[in-house]
Design brief:
- The chain is an alpha/beta fold.
- It has one domain: Rossmann fold (3-Layer(aba) Sandwich), CATH 3.40.50.300.
- Helix 2 packs antiparallel against helix 3 and helix 4 crosses helix 7.
- The longest helix has 22 residues.
- Bound molecules: adenosine-5'-diphosphate.
- Adenosine-5'-diphosphate binds next to helix 1, helix 6 and helix 8.
């Protein structure tokens, strides 16, 4: 079983590319679960409503809700049933966004028991491109979705990924996500092949 996580700023193509990878793996006869955070569970709903600015929690409560949503998420995944579990966002998203207001070490600590991904795919896209995609393709704008925020979030992402690579041996691959949807999908498959993540395909 391989646990693959997609990370990137909003509009970078996480949903598009995680679906395409799932299709590719299914076509190759693999058992695949595609999942996402925040989840569709009860705690995830509270977080989604906060991101959509419908309800408000203080930052610490939100950080704890994210961690609780993750334990709930993991408890409901039968990892042994699958060849691949793919998650559209995971704890790196949470560390990146919430460490703007909450101490990063505390965030890491409350996620200490969360399963470590076998590979993190970071979709690297310019914030300007992401904003254009979001404005053209969605009917609502969520919290964090403005250019200054996205620039800050991207910088923070890169910093946290780098430190988790060196201190926690997290396996991270950076994928240029500014290309066409098909090309990005091909690059992701090549990256997984190179990392020996696609056995018998
Ligand atoms: P995310 O899940 O990261 O927020 P999405 O996958 O929902 O991003 O993509 C945001 C929008 O941008 C969607 O409408 C999607 O069709 C479009 N999109 C995704 N990848 C690309 C790409 N490589 N080139 C152009 N548009 C893209």
């Amino acid at each position: 079983m391989k646990f693959i996580v997609f990370e990137g700023i909003d509009g970078s193509g996480l949903s598009t590319q995680s679906h395409l990878l799932k299709e590719y793996l299914l076509m190759n006869g693999k058992k695949v679960l595609l999942t996402k955070e925040p989840t569709d569970g009860l705690i995830g709903m509270l977080i989604r409503n906060t991101l959509r600015k419908r309800i408000k929690f203080d930052e610490m409560t939100l950080a704890l809700l994210f961690a609780a949503d993750r334990t709930d998420h993991l408890a409901n995944i039968k990892f042994a049933h699958y060849d691949y579990v793919i998650s559209d966002r995971y704890y790196i998203s949470n560390f990146t966004y919430q460490s703007q207001t909450i101490d990063l070490n505390f965030l890491i600590e409350i996620n200490r028991y969360a399963r470590k991904p076998d590979m993190v795919l970071f979709l690297d896209v310019k914030p300007e491109t992401c904003i254009e995609r979001i404005i053209h393709n969605r009917d609502h704008i969520e919290l964090y979705e403005n250019i200054e925020q996205l620039k800050l979030v991207k910088e923070n992402y890169l910093k946290i990924l780098k430190s988790m690579q060196s201190e926690n041996n997290l396996v991270v691959t950076y994928i240029k996500g500014d290309k066409s949807i098909e090309k990005v999908n091909k690059d992701i498959i090549s990256a997984l092949t190179e990392a020996n993540m696609l056995e018998n395909i």
